[in-house]
Design brief:
Nucleotidyltransferase, domain 5, 6-stranded mixed beta sheet
């Protein structure tokens, strides 16, 4: 399916939308002050080793110490007796590999999320246009997405190029999917570029102090050409003349095929207005997602997991109720897959499709769901229907979700999504006044609360307020304060 990539650039933020059939499928945002760290290489300093957790905290110059697990510590083949990175490889305990105060070259493999620091690996990899360079390894691999029949021939070509003394020698490589049709000259160019980059990283590591950045990964604009542009991409439209020139120059050197799809957008309307992308983003931040049939989804994101509830809503298009449910679930399968990509939801996802009586309907919905998820660039794993009719799946966490990136918890409800009713607040105040009256002996109590609470005290709850005043034998005055939240109040002793 053909897609267009729209890029909206500003000095403070870059936004990239992948559009298919007029609908946004993916949204990528990079803010100048909040740029992601994945791929960056640092010279870190081991701050603390935790043998019980087989992990360590590494200071790489960020606000929070980064996290290194023993599984992400690279071992030399001579130490492990096997090729590093292979499954089943014997792993030395972390306390025998690193020590506190040690300077360690590390790479970020996962951005800080919430209260968690960045996750690190000591297995350094440098991504190029067609290859990934593994400087500490000698293994030559080919992406599993390439057909098995072509893999052996590609590996043989790559081995011959890597072993060529003219290319510098040393290090392992993985051939990416977009190198499937690459010529030997193009592959040799990428090999030379990656080895040159690695040489610069090593030189920086010998000169800079611990906590320094040794290598900055590509910007979002550059990653658009490297990762998002494919055969299915019709065009990449960019609305900044200056960035268009820079990206064209970068693309011409490293990704000429992708650079050929670059177009400078010169329209008067903002580029994101062409496809109503801002409206799609606003909808992606809401709980309710309308389906074309009249049904709808309810998406709730929590710290541990995301739940998606499917409802028929006003859909009555099928001949019977079973068919209505089936058609709604089929449409929802595609909509849910799109929402996961658009919102960048990761971790555990539980989908509550509408209960279906027929097993063939369940199988069809599950097959459609898996088919739609197969288009996702991020790894997903989907289970079947549970005895309760739920579908559990996981989607790899890569970055903060769209909601966490663009929003913050409500200062009124603190992220709960609900506040107490005015009547509940009234009763809380009455109990608090009684509690204060038993401990103190002021001349008067003054209640300061939000206008709806004060109005309720003056109207329906006036009798209860007067009764409490008589009981404690103290006057109670009221003061409305619009700056207070619905369930915030203060009791002043005069």
């Amino acid at each position: 399916m053909q897609n267009d990539i729209l890029v909206n650039w500003s000095p403070q933020e870059v936004r990239v939308a992948v559009v298919e059939n007029g609908a946004v499928q993916e949204l990528h945002i990079e803010r100048t002050l909040e740029r992601g760290l994945v791929g960056n290489v640092y010279l870190g300093k081991v701050a603390r080793v935790l043998p019980g957790m087989q992990s360590a905290f590494i200071d790489i110059g960020l606000e929070r110490a980064a996290f290194l697990h023993v599984a992400d510590v690279w071992q030399r083949p001579a130490e492990s007796g096997d090729v590093p990175g292979r499954k089943g490889e014997p792993q030395l305990p972390i306390e025998k590999q690193i020590f506190e105060g040690q300077a360690l070259m590390v790479q970020v493999i996962k951005d800080p999320i919430g209260s968690k620091g960045a996750r690190l690996s000591t297995q350094i990899s440098v991504a190029g246009r067609m290859l990934v360079f593994l400087p500490q390894d000698e293994h030559v691999g080919v992406s599993q997405k390439i057909a098995q029949a072509e893999r052996d021939a590609l590996r043989a070509r790559l081995v011959a190029l890597v072993g060529d003394k003219a290319s510098g020698g040393g290090g392992g490589f993985i051939l990416r999917t977009n190198a499937e049709d690459a010529s030997d000259a193009e592959l040799a160019e990428d090999i030379a570029y990656l080895r040159k980059t690695w040489s610069g990283i090593r030189a920086a590591a010998q000169q800079l102090p611990a906590g320094s950045l040794l290598h900055l990964d590509l910007s979002l604009l550059q990653r658009v050409l490297r990762d998002l542009v494919g055969e299915q991409t019709s065009s990449v439209r960019l609305d900044s003349r200056e960035q268009f020139a820079l990206l064209s120059s970068f693309g011409a050197e490293y990704m000429p095929k992708a650079a050929g799809k670059l177009q400078l957008y010169k329209g008067e309307r903002p580029i994101f207005d062409l496809f109503g992308i801002d409206e799609d983003v606003a909808r992606a931040l809401g709980r309710r997602v309308e389906l074309k049939s009249g049904g709808y989804l309810i998406v709730d994101q929590t710290e541990a997991l995301t739940t998606v509830d499917v409802n028929t809503g006003g859909y009555v298009g099928a001949r019977n109720f079973d068919e209505t449910i089936f058609k709604t679930n089929l449409e929802a399968a595609g909509a849910i897959a799109r929402q996961l990509r658009l919102r960048n939801l990761g971790g555990i996802v539980v989908v509550d499709f509408i209960d279906m009586l027929h097993a063939d309907h369940q199988e069809a919905v599950l097959a459609e769901f898996r088919k739609q998820l197969a288009r996702d660039r991020v790894k997903t794993v989907v289970g079947g229907f549970s005895p309760l009719g739920l579908v559990e799946m996981t989607r790899k966490r890569t970055h903060e979700s769209l909601a966490h990136m663009l929003c913050e918890p409500c200062p009124t409800c603190h992220g709960v999504g609900e506040v107490k009713t005015a009547r509940s607040v009234c009763y809380d105040i009455l109990r608090e006044v009684l509690r204060e009256a038993r401990q103190f002996n002021p001349k008067e109590f003054r209640v300061i609360a939000a206008p709806p609470v004060i109005e309720l005290f003056l109207d329906e709850e006036s009798q209860h307020l007067a009764g409490l005043s008589d009981f404690i034998r103290k006057p109670i005055s009221l003061q409305a304060e619009s700056a207070l939240g619905p369930d915030q109040y203060d009791i002043v002793l005069l």
